[in-house]
């Protein structure tokens, strides 16, 4: 296992999530080609790249929904690479994946959706009542408690999904394109929620996004740019903007142009 070093005390700390030389192909298309990176405990790590480069595949690998063709995936000190579905169950409780769609239960209210992980874990009704109220307040959607998913906007569905993820009392949350297909105001709200989850709950987080200005810049401690199955950059936002790598420069410039166009249309 690789280690990072605390700059003050120079003591080793293991990554919470670590990919070691991971490859993944679908048919004859290699999506990930020897990818290695680590996510520090308590940080928010963003994976950048255009649609279809394998960002979401990386998240699904991190919770064992897909298996890598080769390499290792370590989560909270455990090698999950070859775990069975039964062995993966506790891993998925501690690492919650928030899908782009929200993946809410259509037949349950917002309240019932958020309470599901608690009732599923056998919590008493009074505990469920108290915690659901707490989590709805945390993501600032308590007024939507009795609504059905069909009555919610895309952004509200994601906020509910975050609350349900937190209700599972995880150590980490993974977000799939959290600000895609939402208006600028809701995008700001979701970004603030992601930062809030990190700062108030000390959660480790991964975010995949194609959007630097409207997402990664607002939430990430470190970012990585995925291109043709490999990371061409891993570092801070400042380092990303200063990078001379041609692929990085092109991606940053395209994001800047898109951001300026969005501002004109707003």
Task: Describe it.
With 266 residues, this protein is α/β, with parallel strands linked by helices. The protein has a single domain, classed as P-loop containing nucleotide triphosphate hydrolases (Rossmann fold). Helices cover 41% and strands 25% of the residues. The protein contains nine helices and twelve strands. A six-stranded mixed β-sheet has the order 8-9-10-5-11-12, sandwiched between helices. β6 and β7 form a beta hairpin. α4 packs across α5 and α6 packs parallel to α7. The longest helix has 20 residues. The chain is globular. The termini are far apart.
Question: Could you give a short description of this structure?
Answer:
Helix content is 41%, strand content 25%.
As for the CATH topology, it is Rossmann fold
Annotation field: number of helices: 9
Q: Profile the largest sheet.
A: 6 strands, mixed
Count of spatially separate domains: 1
Strand order of the largest sheet: 8-9-10-5-11-12
| CATH homologous superfamily placement | P-loop containing nucleotide triphosphate hydrolases
The unreliable regions are 1-12
- Architecture in CATH? 3-Layer(aba) Sandwich
How large is the radius of gyration?
19 Å
């Amino acid at each position: 296992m690789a280690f990072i070093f605390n700059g003050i005390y120079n003591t080793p700390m293991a990554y919470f999530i670590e990919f070691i030389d991971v490859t993944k192909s679908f048919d004859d298309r290699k999506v990930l080609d020897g990818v290695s990176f680590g996510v520090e405990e308590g940080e928010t790590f963003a994976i950048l790249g255009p649609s279809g480069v394998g960002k979401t595949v990386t998240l699904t690998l991190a919770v064992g929904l897909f298996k890598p063709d080769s390499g290792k995936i370590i989560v909270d000190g455990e090698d999950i690479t070859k775990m069975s579905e039964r062995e993966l169950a506790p891993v998925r409780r501690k690492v919650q994946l928030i899908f782009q769609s929200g993946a809410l239960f259509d037949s349950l209210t917002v309240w019932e959706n958020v309470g599901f992980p608690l009732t599923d874990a056998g919590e008493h009704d009074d505990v469920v009542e108290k915690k659901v109220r707490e989590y709805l307040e945390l993501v600032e959607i308590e007024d939507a408690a009795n609504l059905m998913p069909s009555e919610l906007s895309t952004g509200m569905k994601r906020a509910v999904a975050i609350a349900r993820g937190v209700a599972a009392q995880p150590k980490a949350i993974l977000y799939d394109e959290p600000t895609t297909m939402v208006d600028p105001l809701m995008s700001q709200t979701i970004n603030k929620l992601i930062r809030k989850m990190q700062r108030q709950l000390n959660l480790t987080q991964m975010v995949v996004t194609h959007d630097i200005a409207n997402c990664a810049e607002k939430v990430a401690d470190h970012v990585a740019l995925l291109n043709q199955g490999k990371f061409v950059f891993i570092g801070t936002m400042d380092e990303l903007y200063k990078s001379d790598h041609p692929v990085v420069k092109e991606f940053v410039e395209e994001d800047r142009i898109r951001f300026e166009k969005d501002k004109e249309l707003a």
